[in-house]
Amino acid sequence: MKTLKSLIQNALRVKEILKNSGSYLAHLPPPNDNITVETLSEHLELVFECLDRNVDENGLNFIIDRLIESIVVNESLGNEEILREYIKQLFVDTIIFHDFGKVNENFQTERMKNNLFRSVSTIIKPVYGHSELGAFIYLVYHLEAINSKCNLSDQQKVFLSFMAFLLVNSINLHHNPKIVEPLKRLERSIFIKEYEKLKKYLDLYSIRQTNLSKGYFDNFAEIIDSIEIEKHQVFPLYALTRLNFSLLTSSDYLATSEYMNQLKLDNLGLINESLRKKIVIAAKTTHNYNAKAHQLACSNFEITNPIERSGDNLNIIRQNMAIEVLRNIRKQSKNRLFYLEAPTGGGKTNLSMLIIAELLNSSPEINKVFYVFPFTTLITQTHKAILKTLDLTENEVSLIHSKAGFQTKKNVATEESEDGKYGDEKLNYLNNLFVHYPICLLTHIRFFDILKTNEKETNYLFHRLANSIVIIDELQSYPPQHWDKMLYFIQNFAEIFNMKFVLMSATLPRIDKLNLPLVNKPTFTDLLPNANQCFINANFADRVNFCFDYRDIKLEISDLADIVLEKSEEYSLRSESGGVFTIIEFIFKKSATEFEEAIKYRFFDENCIFVLSGTILEPRRREIINFLKNENNRTKKVLLITTQVVEAGVDIDMDLGFKNLSLIDSDEQLAGRVNRNVKKEPCKVYLFQINNAGIIYKNDQRYIVTRDNISTEEHEEILKTKNFDKLYDLVLGEIDKKNGFKEMQNFNNTYYPYIQRLDYENIHKGFQIIENQNLSIFVPLCLPIVVLDEKDNHDRIFSEDELFFLKQNNVLPIDRKIDGVSVWDIYFQMIKNKEVEFIKKEIGRKIITGIISKFTFSVFLTDKIKRELQTFSNPEKQFEDYYYLEHHQSCYDYKKGLIESKFDASENFIL
């Protein structure tokens, strides 16, 4: 096939085919700017440049060819080479033609204020519209061209016409906030029924017209119905149409921005050869333990794991795991799907960085890395580790989550003038919007949204998936009802987009065992195939002993408090330091609060009883975690009362654990916070039952299987032996069983058909990792700028950029604290202000969103909680999904979070 670059070079040029082309404008300059108006021809040339660069630097030409080849492989069609070439032309021409509709006189008069034209009555809605008109011109041009080809059979012509009908959707919707099912959208298009009234615009471009194309418009539904999509074509059609929309909209946006702001992006944030070498070298040299692992991996060193428990032996086992991972990744580096199962405390994050360096070293086409996490705390922790271990700068790593705010790339060459600073802001806005960073740490919600979204702005990033490494951490935390969808997308994207996925966890569900309608069965390479030897090694298996003495006993909160006190006192007496760090986890915050009341002022040191729940604000959470990680506090008697927010992603080392039974893998995650570094005698985690886990997990297949199919003895055995396959095999079997029922809503009968018919909206809606709606609560407290970190140094809560932004908006720290009332006023006024320039407003909104996240927590959205929270809120200051908790003194405590006693039956919505 011809390269996309050559197709762009030989594309139709407006200045050559459009009569009086210089009269047609595409954009007007911003007010008070001295730049000239932009003609349609000039705009399209800029779009071509941005498209060429997007495709070239992201390595997309090969990806596009692969998608087209997968679509065309059809024995009954024949002439495959001609079909491939023409589909690629169709693909490129959506971008070439996308603004051809700007010849609409009303667009020129009303939008461009172009005196060379007069307004006319039109069937186009809105009257100044251009997208549908461009789609009409594209379709007529290609339907005529397809039908004039003598070397094609009628069947081949129908198939190419079908492809044109699909791809024209990108032109039709390139200014819409969401993309919808192409053929349904086409049914509503004006030109399907109003061909004759639009023919005059074809004359402007000298496009040949016959009754053939009109006949195709009249009968397009029959044409569509005559096409049978085969299994091997389903995903390639989905991916090709999404990729087309992504490239069109992103190239158009970048080209428009370049003209409007007179700024050209200097790079697209990819891993170049210099950065690749730096990462590979840093992975081998930054830490001595990694340097030694690399050295031994290249030798004949035979791995033998010591069985005696000690901190030194634990480090030896960690090193041996690194050696095994390095050897296996080097042997299997050409593969695309990997599993990394390692015990809690085994150093998975470090191992993942070694894997990244090896894959970058062996695969020169890989040019970006995505780290995917279920919790923002994991993003923060990994960010620090990855900067140090891989010798990266802040300009090379992007953080995408609700608390990240606006990220700036520091430019030492920036002029001190205000114009220079604002120029940098504009570039930073584009870098944030398109995530022009070589390494990106993001939440699982955002990542899977990129894979399956129908929203335009998120779809900008779709083309950046190609040629990437994706590390998905804590796989067990994803709802089982979506494991089949995850596997479907992971397998297909890996194969066609040349992506390498590493799925990792201490309790890893082997989702490749699922039976799905995949063209090729997924094959995962296990990077630690002997991980079970580590799990049963005393340094991991005996790190924590589960105790089931209280599992089946009906306990009151007061009884539980007595047990916790008794066990904590016993541990303190045995401890050399006399201290004890005890953690107790409940499902609902209400029980945590009741427990705190029951144990108050008994045994534990004053100011050393902490509450950590979903209603605790970020600064307080950091204060607690940093206190627990500070070695100077190990002599104290500390109690951490928490909900399940502590399970994964909180790097703390406790001495004793108590946990309300919930999911088996959830029980294991809590145990991962106890005796984390094997520096103590075997520690215990006691399981009890106060809250009913079924309230939260009633639809979770893990809970259902555990309740119905796993005995108490088997539950204990799984936790003791770490044989989580026993649980997951049952869960996977239930998913397969459900997918086997034709009358049920499931992947095979419901979700897969969405993909088959390109129903983008339901593809997106049908795969929501978090299905509960949340309500965000803003608490207008005064929050500290910094808190103490684990070494008694300053841990910044507000970044320098955030403080600078607040200063620009006349908010200054008082007693080293930021007033939430003033912060909310900035946000409220900024959103309401219609006069601020778009980019300035968007930058400000992004920065202030990061700031207000520090004052915000979330609860499950129900009508009841909304009513009850309104009692303490100010309706006049509410906005979107935020409640402003104006009377927080009555229902909120900085150290304890939301006060449940102020609400009726709060246990089901406050975690």
From TrEMBL:
Pfam families per record: Cas3-like_C_2 (PF22590), DEAD (PF00270)
Domain HD Cas3-type per the UniProt entry, residue ranges: 33-254
Family matches, as CDD domains: Cas3''_I
Key words of the record: Antiviral defense, ATP-binding, Helicase, Hydrolase, Metal-binding, Nuclease, Nucleotide-binding
The keyword Nuclease belongs to this UniProt entry's keyword annotation: yes
SUPFAM superfamilies hit by this protein: P-loop containing nucleoside triphosphate hydrolases
Coiled coil regions, renumbered to chain: none
InterPro entries: Cas3-like_dom (IPR054712), CRISPR-assoc_Cas3_HD (IPR006483), CRISPR-assoc_Cas3_HD_sf (IPR038257), DEAD/DEAH_box_helicase_dom (IPR011545), Helicase_ATP-bd (IPR014001), Helicase_Cas3_CRISPR-ass_core (IPR006474), P-loop_NTPase (IPR027417)
Gene3D superfamilies listed in its UniProt record: 1.10.3210.30, P-loop containing nucleotide triphosphate hydrolases
Domain called Helicase ATP-binding: residue spans: 329-526
Tagged with keyword Metal-binding: yes
Family in the record: In the central section; belongs to the CRISPR-associated helicase Cas3 family. In the N-terminal section; belongs to the CRISPR-associated nuclease Cas3-HD family.
UniProt name for this protein: CRISPR-associated helicase Cas3
